[in-house]
Design a protein that fits this description.
The protein has 398 residues and is of the alpha+beta class. The chain folds into four domains: 74 residues, Histidine-containing Protein, Chain: A, CATH 3.30.1340; 75 residues, SH3 Domains (SH3 type barrels, Roll); 69 residues, SH3 type barrels, CATH 2.30.30; 141 residues, endopeptidase domain like (from Nostoc punctiforme) (endopeptidase fold (from Nostoc punctiforme)). Helices cover 24% and strands 35% of the residues. It is built from eight helices and 27 strands. Strands 21-26-22-23-24-25 form a six-stranded antiparallel sheet. It has a five-stranded antiparallel sheet with strand order 9-8-7-4-10. Strand 15 and strand 16 form a beta hairpin. It is globular and about 70 Å long.
């Protein structure tokens, strides 16, 4: 009889434990589902939104760990959990990090900063930022900073490429007069003399605080305090440049031609080297418009003007996208982009910046890209969802 009761009790305990585990698993399944739903709602593209959360079991507790720069997303998740009566321990770190002590505003202080996927020089180059680009600093890892650029792209920059500021000091910088470097490449000098010591190299699109003029030079200050001189033929007052902006088919094509032959560089978005979407991004930026970073993001902006290789419908400045169309089992994959320049030709970065044709009889016919053509979008004189117009948005100057 004693053995019977021992067996009976063991079976009951096992059933109770199994029941508890089953309920716990169901709770975790619901919790996981709510976390994923929140990620899809607030951070479907990890390149531009940080909502990195994990569920960790610590004894009888379920702990939500991770970090995010999206307080609205975190609050929405907590509300969902409370509505479902799910017990949890909140261990989420909201960024910017308090360890930055308020210095959460940054300015790129070199001609071109290489921005990485991870805090290491050996990590993938994901994008670049030119001199004077304002960024939000989210956290530090040693001598590296996780930042978010004006187009919301997340990446890491080493301390050699960025100066950090408090909000007060950053706003003071935004209020200063500035110049924009307009020549494809050049230099800044220690005195108003092009034979004097070079202070820094320069690339098109660099933004600097201007302190005055001497002879044929602008006297400028870098974000880290360095003083230098830039020849007036190679730069322009930023306000005057902004006021004169009138992006057109002609201006986009003219800008693209100044980059002819620039080498292909994965992650490149400057005149030192460009990948395909970095090239189109640079063209538009030098005409006062900030496109999303990658081709797979750029394709979701603008207005589609062709899907059927009816190239007579295209206008100079339209962007052509290439890749693999969606199927029943796979999503559309966008892998390349170029810009239409007319005469059945488009300019793009592949190996180097060059011109290709969709005309089968042309010497520069590009059969490979024609076969993977997806569609073309127009941005000029169209709704600017997903784009930043510098004339309307005070990115560099209030």
């Amino acid at each position: 009889m004693r053995r019977y009761w021992k067996g009976f009790i063991a079976v009951c305990c096992l059933a109770l434990v199994t029941s508890c585990l089953s309920e716990e698993n169901k709770g975790n399944e619901v919790l996981n589902k709510l976390v994923e739903e929140t990620k899809q709602e607030f951070a479907p593209d990890k390149r531009v939104a940080l909502l990195d959360l994990d569920l960790v079991s610590e004894g009888s507790k379920t702990v939500i760990k991770g970090e995010s720069n999206l307080p609205d997303a975190v609050n929405a998740l907590k509300e969902k959990l409370n509505q479902n009566n799910i017990s949890y321990t909140d261990s989420i770190t909201l960024l910017p990090s308090t360890e930055l002590e308020g210095k959460t505003y940054g300015l790129i202080k070199i001609s071109v900063a290489n921005l990485r996927g991870k805090p290491s020089h050996s990590s993938e180059l994901v994008t670049q930022a030119t001199l004077g680009t304002p960024v939000e600093i989210l956290k530090a890892d040693g001598t590296w900073y996780l930042i978010q650029t004006p187009d919301r792209y997340l990446s890491w920059v080493d301390a050699g490429g960025i100066s950090s500021f408090s909000k007060e000091d950053f706003l003071k910088w935004k209020a200063t007069n500035k110049v924009i470097f307009t020549k494809t490449m050049g230099q800044a000098f220690s005195t108003p003399d092009q034979n004097s010591q070079v202070v820094s190299d320069m690339v098109a699109g660099g933004i600097l605080e201007v302190l005055g003029e001497e002879s044929n030079f602008y006297k400028v200050r870098f974000p880290d305090g360095r003083m230098a001189f830039i020849h007036k033929d190679e730069a322009q007052d930023y306000d005057a440049w902004l006021a004169a902006l009138d992006p057109s088919q002609e201006s986009l094509v003219n800008t693209s031609m100044t980059l002819m032959g620039v080498p292909y560089l994965w992650g490149g978005t400057s005149t030192k080297g460009v990948d395909c979407s970095g090239f189109t991004k640079t063209i538009y930026f030098l005409n006062g418009m900030v496109l999303p970073r990658d081709a797979s993001q750029q394709i979701h902006t603008g207005v589609t003007v062709d899907k059927d290789k009816d190239f007579d419908q295209l206008q100079p400045g339209d962007l052509l996208f290439f890749g693999k169309p969606a199927t029943e089992t796979s999503k559309e994959r966008v892998v390349h982009v170029g810009m239409w320049i007319g005469n059945n030709e488009f300019i793009h970065s592949a190996g180097r910046v060059h011109i290709s044709s969709v005309d089968k009889e042309a010497d520069n016919f590009d059969e490979y890209n024609l076969n993977r053509y997806l569609r073309s979008n127009r941005y000029l004189k169209e709704p600017m969802d997903g784009l930043i117009e510098l004339a309307k948005t005070p990115v560099f100057k209030d």
